[in-house]
Amino acid sequence: MKMVKDKRKKMHLSKMYSLRRKGFEEDHSQIGGPAPYSAVSAILPLIVVIGATMVKEGIEDWQRQQQIEILKDHEVNNRKVKVHRRGGVFETSQWKKLKVGDIVKVEKDEFFPADLLLLSSSYEDAICYVETMNLDGETNLKLKQSLDVTSLYNEDSKFNNFKATVKCEDPNASLYTFVGTMNFQEQRYALSPQQLLLRDSKLRNTDYIYGAVIFTGHDTKVIQNSTDPPSKRSKIEKRTDHIIYFLFFVLFLMAFTGSIYFGVVTKDDLDGNRMKRWYLRPDDSEIFFDPKKAPIAAIYHFLTAVLLYTYLIPISLYVSVEIVKVLQTVFINKDVHMYDEESDKPAHARTSNLTEELGQIDTILSDKTGTLTCNSMEFIKCSVAGTAYGRGVTEVERSMAKRVNGEDHFDENGTEAYSHLSVKGYKFEDERITNGRWVNEPHSDVIQKFLRLLAICHTAIPDVDEETGKVTYEAESPDESAFVIAARELGFEFYKRTQTSVSFMEFDPKSKKHVERSYELLNILEFNSTRKRMSVIVRDDEGKLLLLCKGADSVMFERISKKGRQFEEKTRDHVHEYADAGLRTLILAYRELNEKEYEEFNEKFTEAKNSVSAERDDMISEVTDQIENDLILLGATAIEDKLQKGVPETIDKLAQAGIKIWVLTGDKMETAINIGFACSLLRQGMKQIVITLESPEIIAAEKSGDKNSIARVSKNSVQKQIAAGKAQINASKSDAYALIIDGKSLAYALSDDTKNEFLDLAVGCASVICCRSSPKQKALVTRLVKEGTGKTVLAIGDGANDVGMLQEADIGIGISGVEGMQAVMSSDIAIAQFRFLERLLLVHGHWSYRRISSMISYFFYKNIVFGTTVFLYEAYASFSGQPAYNDWYLSLYNVFFTSLPVIALGVFDQDVSARLCLKFPLLYQEGVQNTLFRWRRIFSWMVNGLFSGIIIFFLCMKSLNPESYDKNGKTAGMEIMGATMYSCVVWVVNCQMALAVSYFTLIQHIFIWGGIFLWYLFLIVYGALPSSASTTAYKVFVETLAPAPTYWLVTLFVVTASLVPYICFKAVQMRFFPGYHGMVQWIRHDGRANDPEYFQMVRQQSIRTTNVGFTARSIARDNEFDWHLER
């Protein structure tokens, strides 16, 4: 009885090897070789996969190269400039041939070819106007002035015998500092940034300048600020690599375990003359089944098993992901909601490697000028003599109104009353003072002085069109331009400037006519970040000496005389209201001077200006402080730094999504703070932690001139301020904090021993604004946030000064604005407006992250299902290296039968609609927290695949063995078992896909059910080939499978049994334990979009407690109001 039982078991095992028509020898030779399949069937799919990836990458590189063609280095270096050769003769030469010490002549609207020392210009006092848009993103003009001793060298011929020696600092990346001296005519003169013209700046409103080359090529400050573009890969792609490594480890472990078992069993195959596995012919084997060479047989089996189990690794995963990403970028490029009609520019994804990263952004680092703002200042309101004028509504006020009331409650007719005004920089409308009606106001004399001050106190240059007589202005800042435009529109038109006079037309209340006035310009007391004010001293046409001053309220109110405070209280209230509306405010005041007072001041001021000591700036500041006192208050201006359309709403929605927003700008601190208020990154009541280097200790160290001492004291000061800020946050964590730091402090904050403390402080704040940041500092801050937090960082900017930041970030977004195309060319994705970032992240980012995560998880699932059946079959066949399936079944599984549905999932699936993505921004946190691609979720898909594979194998095995398969009583051989089990695998993985899809399209139906149809079509076509080609698949479907009811019943039963566990799990989870995402999906699937109560309940859960955005500003106002009521 025992012998019969053993024999029966051996017979069943022998059926696994299918004694085919061509005899035992052929079958035995196939399983005895180290390769379990033919070379062609293995190599062809690999060629397809690698070829598709190469084509995709090649096309993208070619497209990028085509776009960068216009910016190639050799084109820039081959630009022309006039260079002094000898004898006062200037010849044209290429930029790349310039040498340190060359004297060049740069003409109007040309770029500076190197870092130059300004020697002279077409103006008598050797000033020139420079546009630094490519350096700091600012379109306003900077005023530069040469030393007086070289100002007379303003003609070519005068450089015949010009000789001077310059000693200066080593090349560095600091754009705003320069230290050096010039020895000229046996005298030594101090040099400052005022004489330095930086490469890539442009000469504006100046006919020509002469300059000496100080730094060239890579030594120039703009190149010092550049960074090498890194290679970017998404975090999901990197984790996918780790999963592949894990699967390789599992593969080798399986092969190793099976090989040890195979070696042990092979060694015991011969028991005397009795063969335990007689069907393997161990007595007639060369190596593979030879008991005498069991160790070598085990090694052979290991190689065979490694090759056989490679189907555990999804080779088509990467190419499928590449295809999906390319198609996702097409959808981004074609999204009409991200198309800007005004500039006729759609969104453009310049690389397809990072689409899923868009759904995982934790921090946004944004430039200001041209990114958040249009860099267009508009005069909108003012307060004069304690009376508020101007009926305009700011973007911030409108956004807050929409938040509070659900709609814009401002009267459209009222707000559009001034829409007919097509004057750039002027958005003021108030019938009380426009069109000369100011003469009827109670304090018309104060209004007249106020408007005169606007027309005189500036450094703008008028440009009169000779044909039309229209006056336009070139100013150092957009603010100044807005002031002179406002004065012009209100009847005080500035039209002429000389070195010693300012001329303007004004409305005369007495004669009721416009009269011409010319004031003698005596001194200009320039604005800087320390003084925070600007003044001019003029003599009017009546001979009176006047000091006209405008500046920040923090320094102006303390300089008002006791007699000049008549309107102070009301003006302060108006300034507070303007600031809360996001407006930039300045206080305007004046005083009359007597002759003696002015002469004393002018003597000291001239002496301070001509000083060459290190204390020159302090001497000038001390002198100006003495004269800028006892002022009489006139009023305040309110200018809207015109935000790009939708910026406050976008920032608010991104804040609701849990995304942190930092602003990195080259602007002054005051400008950056005002924009922070305008776009609701800052608000009244938010505590500001300001880190600067303006303490008396720092000033004293700078006076000493010792660089080491200055650096040591400065670094200690920054460290102390950071520590104090962290202590302040820890002491009151319930309050909202904003961190504001300037460029000098940032240089020390980014040092190796301080940067981690700085990052801790910054992360603890609701808003972070870095002012006066150089391009290199922007890149370093981006790197610090990216590496320090380990989160995904996005940088967005529009200028050449943002290139380093864009390249350093995980994703760089370029704004295709007015500042050239450098940022766009260095970006990963280009958009036309900042507001499109909302849809790009919350919709496309969310979808892309979910699609890529799901498709990769599904890829591993379907390969583990397939690999499990291969492994179990080989184990059941005594680890003999026998594949369960035909060669081409193995090869085409990933390439054809299961790849198209997963691509459709990655391209078309939508868990929720775009409307709901925007309505419930908290959905975005799925990507930030990486909930869909955690190891736990990945392993859960793998376990699902493992169980499905086990169910398929054992149910097929028990169903088909040893019972007869058809009516003729035949039992199922290897070809029938393999084809049936393969059919079940194809059905299960495609039906699992159908269950996982949230949003069906026709294409998905075609791909899912078409994949199953394609399998059967392949069986028919491949089975019709000669047996030498089709081998085990020869007519297996037509003659064996299709006519047998058992095949169809087994397929139905196995597929159902494999999917039931997943269906039950998802049903219980969605019904009883729905997460936030599940609740939003119920709105769509359960038809509850019209249930306002449920809708609002879910909506409220999406509103995060945030300190940024107009939502936070509105809540803070409500809380303050409630507090006053309680009091």
UniProtKB/TrEMBL annotation:
The chain crosses the membrane at residues 243-264, 298-319, 858-876, 888-908, 938-960, 980-999, 1006-1025, 1045-1065. GO terms for biological process: phospholipid translocation; protein localization involved in auxin polar transport. Its cofactor is Mg(2+). The active site is at 367 (4-aspartylphosphate intermediate). Residues 824-1074 form the P-type ATPase C-terminal domain. GO terms for cellular component: plasma membrane. It comes from Ambrosia artemisiifolia. The keyword Transport does not apply. Belongs to the cation transport ATPase (P-type) (TC 3.A.3) family. Type IV subfamily. It catalyses: ATP + H2O + phospholipidSide 1 = ADP + phosphate + phospholipidSide 2. It is found in: Membrane. This is Phospholipid-transporting ATPase. ATP binds at residues 367-369, 480, 527, 550, 584, 665-667, 772, 778, 801-802.
